[in-house]
Design a protein that fits this description.
Blueprint: H1 10-20, H2 27-36, E1 61-63, E2 69-72, E3 83-85, H3 86-95, E4 104-107, E5 120-123, H4 126-134, H5 145-152
Antiparallel strand pairs: 1-2, 2-3, 4-5
């Protein structure tokens, strides 16, 4: 075991590097290594855990590269690779129905992590959403989810 704080000289590093250059295990050694790592002999055999059993589990939530939150919901009809967007799920819970694929959820305060119902506005189509986004000095939106959910009741 190397001494703590010990550093090899450049000459020493070069000698160590050259001593292993071109070194190859024999076919017999390769076979033995391979056999020692198969099945129950492998120290990691049966250790792999998924979902809640995995120590890295974060509750089924993850953040996308562009700031949206995804929820692990493999049984959801709109799930893509077992995940759905949290803002869409929040809206579905508020409305009591699944969203259609053409419906668009807008974050009023532009914070993609803020998925509270009072921060979400439902547009019927992407075209309506883009019309709103392209307006200069667009008016401040107020969530329409409570109105929609009352009409549907």
């Amino acid at each position: 075991m190397p001494k703590k704080g010990f550093k090899h000289s450049e000459e020493s590093k070069k000698k160590m590097s050259e001593s292993k250059t071109g070194f190859k295990h024999s076919e017999e050694t390769k076979r033995k290594i391979s056999e020692s790592l198969k099945g129950e002999k492998n120290s990691m055999y049966g250790v792999r855990k998924f979902g809640e059993d995995n120590p890295s589990w974060k509750g089924g939530r993850k953040k996308t590269g562009n700031g949206y939150i995804l929820l692990n919901m493999p049984e959801h009809p709109s799930a893509i690779n077992n995940y759905i967007y949290e803002h869409r799920y929040s809206t579905e819970c508020m409305l009591g129905r699944f969203l259609e694929s053409k419906e668009v959820i807008h974050h009023i305060d532009s914070d993609r992590k803020n998925n509270l119902p009072e921060n979400l506005y439902l547009f019927d189509t992407q075209a309506e959403h883009m019309n709103y986004e392209n307006l200069k000095n667009s008016p401040q939106l107020v969530s329409n989810l409570t109105e929609i959910s009352q009409v549907q009741s």
